[in-house]
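Hi,

I'm pasting everything inline rather than attaching a file, because the server keeps stripping attachments. The sequence lines come first, and each chain or strand is labelled.
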Amino acid sequence: MPRPSSLREVTTPIFFDHAAGSPLRSDVALAMAEGLRGLPPNPSGSHSLARATRGVLEDARERIAAVLGVEAREIVFTGGGTESCNLALLGVMGPSAICISTVEHTAVRQAALEAASLHGVPLVELPVDSNGVLLVEKALELIPDGALVSVMTANNETGVTQPIAQLRKALRHAPRNIIMHSDAIAAAPSSDVKEIVLACDLVSLAGHKLGGPPGTGVLVVKEGLRLKARNVGGGQELDRRAGTQDVAGALGMAVSLELAQRDRESGAVDALKQRRDQLEQSLAGAHPTLSVTAQRVPRLAGHLHLTVRDCRSEELLMLLDQEGICASAGAACASGAPQASHVLLAMGVDADVARGALRLTLSTSTTDEEVAVAERALTQVLSKLS
Amino acid sequence: MVAMSGGVDSSVAASLLCEQGHDVTGVTLKLWDGPSDTGCCSVADVDDAQRVASQLKIPFHVANMSEAFNTHVVEPYVEAHAQGQTPNPCIECNRHLKFGSLLEMMDRLGFDALATGHHARIRRDGATPELVRGVDNKKDQSYVLSMLNAQQLSVLHLPVGEMTKDEVRQHALQRGLRTSMKPDSQDVCFIQSGPGRRGFLEDRSQITPGHVVDRETGDVVGEVDALELITLGQRQGLGVDAEGIKRVAVKVDMKKKQIMVSTPEKSQINELSISPDSITWVHGVPLGEGVQFITQLRAHSEPVTCRLVSNRLIFDAPINPVAPGQTAAFYDAAQPDVVVGSAMVAV
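And the predicted assembly:
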């Protein structure tokens, strides 16, 4: 039963699934290994060593605040992106409604469902157009005064960015007393989220998407907004998230955010976008069964979301895996099985088409050679399945 | 390609093929997307399969076949119960999913063969492959594979069919596979032990109460609260007759909302209708009318000899009633371990 692929000799898989989480960057790993050397893990204590650990934590907090353009006390460390979103959606007290876009990540969708049930208020879904972009005018009609609104900065599957600043501007007049959260987890690795942080009351970030440590997250909580903690205990993080902080993780998160900023400033993100565009153009031109999702609207630099007609995601992924390409369907259930994405369905994509979704996500570490290999591999896979 | 369920048998099937030098990829089918006893989408089983694949250092994927599973297994299961039948969903899953959609996928992706962890053997010494009972008589699963044809068998491998269950567990244990001591799955995978079959059907269809009627006297002798849950041949829950002998269900009549019961002796049958559309022959060639062969009417029931005449199985000796929707697996009279075909019991 020899393996059918001729590419058994592929030894090093090529990673095109950065949206799921980017490998730990070496500078981050180094900082985490060195930052707490000889120090105890717990920053709460009345002795010199705990104070030293606290110093590392607060240094990380200030560095993150500086990248995001906020005050250090507005940074709450959490145990990851899902927890940040949960704290935002469930921690806001007394909302009149929970309003989320139809393309939010499950972490927001599920937290919104629970928040609506917790407060006994309606859950309002804000529709998107066929590119997955929020319909701002429609949203304004649907959002009531006093609502908690959560719209992601950019979609984790398609990479499509949302008009957050435009929405916020519109919301300054009516409806009133809106609290706005944005899940910037997918966006942060390749875009400057300062504008989002400026526009919103709450912003969620996760370390592992940035090449930082998994299990680390940040919730930016604007000055003056009171949150009810979901984790209770020792009152850490100014009573917003109890539990001993992961100081090494916080430091890793800070370094990864700074590296992302450096990538934008150095032109590495522009180069990333060029590589993505190059891959997109060569694939879209060569394969009539393949469509690029939301090709004509602003998207994250590293995202290439495709649908392949008459194909199933798992089959594409299986063959790509054989060719040494690590990719994703974009949406999977708890078992890991690809499923028709709620994001694509919300965009009006036919369920059959949605079952042939493929997400290739690049990072600033992706090389031209890797792009060329992916292009060849995908060509081979598509010809096999056609 | 090895279909890995997350149980010990398919784990060992994959392990054996690796040790024989094959290039193996593990695939778990996500079939049921509702709640199950092993977590939503049976996540715990997928985790086990994935862990074994990683121990064996083979690629592993999860294929989502939940839509097809609903269409071909779950919906017909509910519908058949509503008609008073007792379907076998494992056989329909094998027919449509494991040896239907998965075989097609295997072919499309360019794999040479499919392996599963079923306890049955495929004999390849003749011109065409033959399906044979597994070595471990207690665990033999040739019954649930009896609908396969020679073409399907030609690309199928059943490595654990040559082993006893103890040997399978021993193999897994020696290699430290996580599934080595995992209990065998007993029940229908999409039905949770709490709400059970009744709860499952209640959520999806009407449950009908009915009278229990003595077939010989016509008297109403009791009531049942769910006709859909009665299986022909059933003795539980139907009361006892004047002599204190448990009554046996001999007919479910959904129209009249009643079940007929009789005594164990009088309930026995000499023949059984099968649906002509459901008949399969391993080699595509029907046994001649009136030729004696062996049939097995439940997963682990005693095989009986019979003949097929005008879509009716004529038994050499009377047997207990068999529910419509059940599968009859046919075995060769001269070689009683060799499967020759299958059919579904008609209403």
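The radius of gyration of chain B is 21 Å.

If the labels don't parse on your end, tell me and I'll reformat.
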